[in-house]
């Protein structure tokens, strides 16, 4: 992140060197907190393909990636991975840009279809009809990986409030909610742990389960009984 924004102590214990080889690197948009120059360059020799929105590939080419590695897509397209795996590129209500260049590249969400498993990755974006549209287009979602943090009513149109995370998860008919975009650094006025606290509270009596892994914890997508701790309690 540029400027004075710094990761919370303990949230930066992993680096690009800890990542395994990556077959497909999915980029939601080119804001600095989603497309970090140093990280992307450090991952360059580990990544086979990059999937991103229109215009975002220019950053990767400038940073040394080969053009044939980059799969730039519009909304409503797909990447056939093979063996029953498909990446669908879908819309979101957000924005893009780095420095003074604004909204010249496309922001994305993704639906991953795997054998017996359907995963929706929301990217950043405010609440709208896309969540119900995803369920109508693809069917119920097994895992909803949802933007949940750095929100404010002042920019409600581009980030989900906790109540909207709940509604979007219901719209998707999701079995599991994995909240992301929280507990890393401060971009909004809410307390660092508020997104997790509110998301757990709002999930009470809902038909979906919330997964709250601690940083570095493995999430087993085919193990619905995997327990998760409320690790943020007592953390200063």
Structure description:
It is a single chain. The chain is built from five helices and twelve strands. It is α/β, with parallel strands linked by helices. The strands form three sheets. The chain has a seven-stranded mixed sheet with strand order 4-5-8-9-10-11-12, with helices on one face. Strands 1-2-3 form a three-stranded parallel sheet. Strand 2 (47-53), helix 2 and strand 3 form a beta-alpha-beta unit. The longest helix is centred in the C-terminal third of the chain and has 10 residues, at 162-171.
Tally the helices: what do you get? 5
Helical content (DSSP H or I, runs of 4+)? 10-25%
CATH architecture, by name, is 4-Layer Sandwich
Reading the helices and strands in chain order gives: EHEHEEEEEEEHEHEHE
* β-sheet strand percentage: 15-25%
Unreliable residue stretches: none
Question: Which structural category fits the helices and strands?
Answer: alpha/beta
Per DSSP E runs of 2 or more residues, the count of β-strands stands at 12
Q: Mean of residue pLDDT?
A: 95
Query: What is the H level of CATH, i.e. the homologous superfamily?
Result: Ribonuclease Z/Hydroxyacylglutathione hydrolase-like
Radius of gyration: 17 Å
| Amino- and carboxy-terminal Cα gap | 22 Å
Oligomer: single chain
Strand order of the largest sheet: 4-5-8-9-10-11-12
Number of domains: 1
CATH topology: Metallo-beta-lactamase, Chain A
């Amino acid at each position: 992140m540029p400027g004075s924004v710094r990761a919370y102590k303990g949230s930066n214990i992993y680096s690009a060197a800890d990542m395994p080889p990556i077959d497909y690197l999915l980029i939601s948009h080119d804001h600095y907190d989603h497309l970090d120059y140093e990280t992307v360059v450090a991952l360059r020799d580990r990544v086979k393909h990059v999937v991103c929105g229109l215009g975002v590939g220019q950053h990767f080419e400038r940073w040394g990636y080969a053009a044939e590695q980059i799969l730039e897509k519009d909304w409503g397209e797909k990447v056939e991975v093979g063996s029953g795996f498909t990446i669908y590129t879908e819309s979101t209500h957000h924005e893009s840009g780095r420095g003074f260049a604004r909204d010249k590249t496309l922001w994305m969400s993704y639906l991953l279809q795997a054998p017996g498993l359907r995963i929706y990755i929301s990217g950043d974006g405010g609440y709208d009809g896309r969540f119900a549209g995803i369920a109508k287009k693809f069917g119920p979602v097994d895992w909803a990986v949802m933007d949940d943090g750095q929100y404010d009513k002042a920019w409600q149109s581009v980030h989900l409030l906790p109540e909207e995370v709940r509604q979007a998860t219901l719209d998707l008919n999701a079995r599991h909610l994995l909240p992301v975009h929280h507990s890393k650094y401060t971009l909004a006025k809410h307390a660092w742990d508020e997104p997790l606290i509110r998301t757990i509270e709002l999930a009470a009596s809902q038909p979906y389960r919330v997964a709250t892994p601690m940083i570095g914890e493995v999430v087993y997508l085919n193990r619905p009984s995997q327990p998760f701790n409320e690790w943020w309690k007592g953390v200063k």
